[in-house]
Design goal:
The protein has 495 residues and is mainly α. The protein has a domain of 211 residues. It is built from 22 helices and two strands. The protein has a two-stranded antiparallel sheet with strand order 1-2. 54% of the residues are buried.
Length: 495
Amino acid sequence: MNLASLFYYQDILLYISFIPLIGIFLLIFINPEQQKLMKFVAINFSSIPFILFLFVWGGFKKSVGTFQFVSKLLWIPVLNLNVTLGIDGISLFFLLLTTFLIPLCILISWNSIGSNLKGYLISFLVIEYFLIGVFCVLDVLMFYILFESILIPMFLVIGIWGSRERKMLASYYFFLYTLLGSVVMLLSILYIYGQVGTTDYEILLTFMFSDFEQKILWFTFFLAFAAKVPMVPVHLWLPEAHVEAPTAGSVILAGVLLKLGTYGFIRFSLPLFPQASFYFAPLVYTMSLIGIIYASLTAIRQTDFKRIIAYTSVAHMNVVMLGIFSFNNVGIEGALLQSLSHGFVASALFVIIGVVYERYRTRLVKYYGGLVHTMPLYVSVFLFFTMANIGFPGTSGFIGEFLIFAGSFKVNSSVTVFGATGMILGGCYALWLFNRIAYGNLKSQYIKETLDINKREFFIFVPLICYTLILGLTPDAYLSSIHMSVNNLIENMYF
């Protein structure tokens, strides 16, 4: 019996989800003055789920497209409501991404958070707990509860530990935009329960709604998920939230929370309402193309470091939407790989911003220049992730975008051309930003220190660089694990 098989038992997902809760329980009873101990507990109990999910990946059967490691818990038996946990190739890597980034967020904040550190660390462990639940749960109602519950700790992270005066406004933006879109989704879930008698995902896959029902239900789910992606015009909360959030908040926001929207489309909208998905595909294409071009052009005229990267995220996530609604294996696999790639690259770019912000306390681009003279290692890392962001060959971004456009080309060549044009604009502003920061005259009146990245920052960047290269150079390690799950999704849609 190998080590991986030891972890292949029914309730492994349930046990992993409890680990952040144990960390929260321990933190509650630690004296707030013992900051090193609190950080040690938080980073360990946030890292253990990542290690265990690596073992789960080792025991994962790539040749099976159905859910694995399934376990059921009674919730409200009299109403036929249960909590079912399970993963397939699609959710597995979102779980790995989540559990990888949360400890990284704690490491990012190692020296920058002074006030109410206990509350800050607990908030991130709560986020991890809810995110593990979101990607594991196979019940529409429980998904909704966990999906919305993430808003609370994220609201606190932005509103309490944000960096500027507008942080409360930004946190309200984030909360209201994403909550209002989801209210109608709850009404639809209640309607589904009334029609089917359960909210169990696997049972719902076997139920056929009428064309009219599908269109209404699809649109209500669309409102919830589009705000999370985000798609234009419900994107306004994202630049505000990013600018005001602490660096770790921006990392988890860009790295994982934006993926909740795309994951929702893949997991629920496409398989549950296939006819409506085909019907509304032109609407999604139009909104995505507007989002790509608008976000790319808007990014060029921004003066704030974070706003530029925030609009970059909007553009990239709208490209992912093109892949999802291509309705073929190539496009959807590309969308999933690009989501994972964006999780690493966007997170790294926000850490890059955080590095200089900690030193110089400004994010305005005009105050920077000539950093190649004083921070050569920093500039090298910045260049690498700039190239990854624009989809340079050899990086994960290239493979993801190539597969997305290959998939969308099979459906609509015009959509592909306009989408690719948007990404060219993206390359323009990414290179412009790098040039402004790295070269030119050193702004000595604003830059008083010449500290390059330290050991802690170096060890944050190393795994992000490695994973970006691994996905770019050996994408089959990822694609082989998701292929059967995506194939199963496509079969459910067409048949």
